[in-house]
Amino acid sequence: MEPWEIINSRNEGPWAVKTALGWCVNGPVSRCQDKQSDGAEGQSFSVNRISVLSIEDMLMRHYEADFPERRCEDKSEPSQHDKQFMHTVTTSAHLTDGHYTIKLPLKEDSVKMPCNRGIAEQRLNSLKRKFNRNADFFQEYNSFMNNILEKGYATRVPDEQLSRSDGRVWFIPHHGVYHPKKKKLRVVFDCAATYQGVSLNDRLLQGPDLTNTLIGVLLRFRQEPVALMADIESMFYQVRVPDEDADLLRFLWWPGGNLNKPVEEYRMCVHLFGATSSPSCASYALRRTAQGAAATTSPEAAETVLKNFYVDDCLKSVATEEEAVHLVKELTELCASGGFHLTKWVSNSRALLCSIPGDERAAEVKDLDLQQDELPVERALGVQWCTSSDSFKFKIQLPDKPCTRRGILSVVSSVYDPMGFLAPLLLPVKLILRNLCKNKRGWDEEISEKPQRTWKKWLADLDKLSELSVSRCFKSSSFGVTKVAQIHHFSDASQDGYGVVSYLLLTNEQEQKHVCFLMGKSRVAPLKQVTIPRMELTAAMVSVKVDRMLKEELQVPLTHSIFWTDSTTVLRYIENDALRFKTFVANRVSFIREATTRAQWKYVNTSQNPADQASRGLKIESFMSSDNWFQGPSFLSEPDHWPEQPEQSTYLSESDEEVKTSAAVSCTNPVVDNTDPVNQLVEHYSSWYRLKKATAWILRLKEILQHLSEKRKELVKAVKESEHDTEKHKAMVEEQMNTCKKNLEKKMLTVEELSRAEMELIKYSQRQTYAEEIKVLQKGNKNVKRTSSIFKLDPYLQDGVLRVGGRLNRSAMPEEAKHPFLLSKQHRVA
């Protein structure tokens, strides 16, 4: 029980101690009785399991999430588990009674699970105690359970199957969670609950991400004037599980919700909220529905299901109300063919809402008088959408947190802004966090006075954002059909950070032009000091990545994009073809040049560059009064009045710190005769082993030729002695030829031959570099001249090879270690 780590208490509450067994919570959980005499609730504490050590990683992931353009880089290939998942769902998916049935995608079909009924009973007993304390909570919970039983999402386990013992039974604990916005209870089945180191989620394949990107769905939602939004009712529960897998989804509950009766075993017949495989299974079933109905429905309806759904939310925009009415009917029928019920319809068109039955509309518009009442504000994937004015609003209700690094991070992270509308406004607060990180301030340490004033002023001014309004649609209803569209990206960097902002320039059939805001992003400068040109180049590279993402997601006729920067240095980097850059610049310039052409890059003055606001940040007053950020620079809609481009010179001074300088290195090499065949052999090879092999073969041939030469002399002498004995002459010739043939037919080189070749190469190198020293030592002198470069090594000759001398002669070391060969570092052999 030795304490490894301690989290201190707050307001005399509990504290936590980390030991070898895990986290232990100590201290008062309640200062009074659970029920007071007047029936009031006692004080309660909620304890959340947290990981203090991973908070830095979570912060980095939060900043990475600011730039979703990474998802549009090179797509990763599916893993083996992804392929296994797709094989399982593809082969097992079939339509039965109007709903798709898909097997649980298990990692192993022969999986055997331990009996964990005891854990499920313990969790249920804990839930029962909570029911006894809170009658309203029990009523909502029981209503939810009755609902899933009535709709057939779950059934009681038949008596004859209660004793199943083949390892295919698993009990899932469950608990209730209230939606923070809707205040609605949802029962979550805890598929991550472990027993004996095993959980259901560990045995399931997660599957590939089949969900459309959030940014993509929101961008397509903004393309046309008439917008509509709907939701699939209980999407996961519309995909069924075959009977052979249902026992892996058992749970315990009281029959009829009577807590006085013994608990009974039930099992889910559908894919669960909480199972790691459910999102991919449900998305696959929805896509399969669209593909199956492609022959009987319009291409637009099928494309809507494939491109305009984010999990169970449908966001779509069309050109006219007539198209919208027709599309709603087709979408409803298409989804119903796969068992999915589209409901909670919302639109900015009153005519469309009138065509939808009242019970299928969203709760906020269900009872409205569509002729007179104002349409409400809805949440479109978390973004506030005012349907009456057809614009995005900003009403930020931030939690009350202490003025510490942890508190500031919590508040900033709760600002939901996927499109980057508020990027200049959020940068100053991110800078506070970066400086706190740089100064190594503790997570719960109160910050100093100056950043505290900045922080409190920022919080106090946030209420003014309620006056901000951004048009949902890229164009007005009177603009007509878009003939051509072009994306313009602006990038900039400063000491504090760098940012990108993108605009869409639309041209209709009457050649009228309109500019609208697409996306903005800002990022603080790294803690390690980086030069401004490098920051500018990084911002330019990010704009190329954003361009790739937007082109992939937008469904409008796009021409080549234009990239604007106020850095002439960046433009010279991109223009240059001759000079070599250092790695940082070279990699980014290469990326930019591969994705764009030089003609797409333009210069803009800093005063006209809206990205300057993203890289430096704005106070709330300046942000609210700035038209440049949301509307873009005025010259965009007037191509004839674009900024005059400076005369770009591809010449960069070699004194530029990003240009690689070439150093002239002079060295004294040994005099080498390039006509020497041995030197040509050495220069030919770049591998020491291959050079040794070639030399060994040459030495073998040399030995054979020398042997033949000697035998030829003997043969000539023998012929002279026996001029008339021709038969003996022939026999001698054949004997010599056979000997040569056997030597040449030896396929493998021996170790001795390779060692001899190495020695000959070393001798050759030494003769070329240390010829004078070898002559001196061959004459019998003990030492070489003092002017020699190897005098201090006390060299000596052994079998014609120069070796290092010295006092190591007396040490108990191998001969090769005591007296290594001498080689010049400038020679090819070395």
Secondary structure: elements and pairs:
Blueprint lengths: L4 E3 L7 E5 L2 E5 L28 H10 L15 H13 L1 E3 L2 E3 L15 H17 L1 H16 L3 E3 L17 E5 L6 E5 L10 H4 L10 H8 L4 E7 L10 H4 L3 E4 L10 E5 L9 H15 L6 H9 L1 E2 L2 E6 L2 H16 L5 E6 L2 H5 L8 H4 L10 E4 L2 E4 L4 E3 L11 H9 L9 H16 L10 H13 L7 E3 L10 E12 L3 E12 L4 E12 L7 H22 L8 E4 L2 H8 L7 H13 L5 E3 L7 H6 L3 H6 L2 H4 L45 H8 L3 H34 L4 H19 L6 H19 L1 H8 L17 E3 L2 E3 L11 H4 L12
Parallel strand pairs: 19-22, 22-23
Antiparallel strand pairs: 1-2, 2-3, 4-5, 6-11, 7-8, 9-13, 9-14, 10-11, 12-13, 15-16, 16-17, 17-18, 19-20, 20-21, 24-25
Helix pairs in contact: 3-4, 8-9, 9-10, 13-14, 16-18, 23-24, 23-25
Question: What would you say this structure looks like, in words?
Answer:
It is a single chain. Strand 4 and strand 5 (99-101) form a beta hairpin. Helix 9 (299-307) crosses helix 10 (321-336) and helix 23 (688-721) packs antiparallel against helix 24 (726-744). 28% of the residues are buried. The protein contains 27 helices and 25 strands. With 830 residues, the chain is of the alpha+beta class. It is extended and about 135 Å long. The model is unreliable at 32-43 (pLDDT under 50). 37% of the residues lie in helices and 15% in strands. The strands form eight sheets. Strands 21-20-19-22-23 form a five-stranded mixed sheet.
